[in-house]
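User: For my dataset I need records formatted as: sequence, then structure tokens, nothing else. Please produce one.
Assistant:
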Amino acid sequence: MSEVKLENVIKAYDKKRVIDGIDLTIKDKEFIVLVGSSGCGKSTILRMIAGLEEISGGNIYIGDKKVNNVHPKDRDIAFVFQSYALYPHMTVYENIAFGLKMRKVDKNIIDKKVQEAAEILNLTEYLDRKPKQLSGGQRQRVALGRAIVRNPQVFLMDEPLSNLDAKLRVQMRAEIKKLHEKLQTTFIYVTHDQTEALTMGDRIVILDKGKIQQVDNPLNIYNNPKNKFVAGFIGSPQMNFIDCGIVNDTLIMTEPIIELNHQVADKLAGKNEITVGIRPEFMVNPTGKIKLKVKTEMTELLGSEQIVYFKIGENKCCARLSTDFLVEDIIELSFDESNFLYFDKVTGERLA
């Protein structure tokens, strides 16, 4: 069993907490993704699980074993780093086999494991090559192969695709998911790329300033964010946020003015100001009851789609459109209250 459990885990540097009481259970054979902006603590969590970073408080379990004071080599984990960390003077075969040789594993077993890993990762024809003769994607597969042959309980991956170009990242995302399905082992994957998080994870852990903001499957994270931070972090382009007032069950959005239905009004009772969130793809709902004309300030062409930027009051917003618009064009938006998310203007917590 390769469940990983963190209980009130704390990491502090000079009394400053960078990880502030994390509680998280990662299920056996799960692919979980830790995501957040730079400095949120995601790589620190990974390094604490690996034993490369001491914890300042709390407990970490791998399987049924508490590993707080267990040496990294005895935790039965494999770590794939952002840099490939390959030995340039060794062949692909020697790089993959290196960890097993250090453990004095029998040569026949080493050869069998290396050949099996090479076949899984389509590296068989490259076993005699040096790393400098490989592409970035092939080098990353060698780093994965070195982890696979150890047959660990848990794979830890710290932004392994960040050094690859966009096309190769897409290809390697699919390969890592296939690898997880083949190996049926627990994967803990760190990234700052929300696309990687949404496409790869069984569950996503959203982190900010050393705290977990939300843990859920990708669809729920996208459709039901717990707070404004999660709503703004997940989604590209990010969710539009519009500051509004409420007067007599009427939402004042500068323009237009929207009468709230009773169900929503009850949930927002006592609030005079809120923030409304609406995703760019919902700003052009053909059946939307709310009509609004805006002037474009900037456009981005994405092939068959275009991102158009504009303002609603003082709020910078954007819409995902399929028609070609120019800067300073007047466009009509059509959206619906059913697509709104409501957030407390001060705390950012979801309201209704």
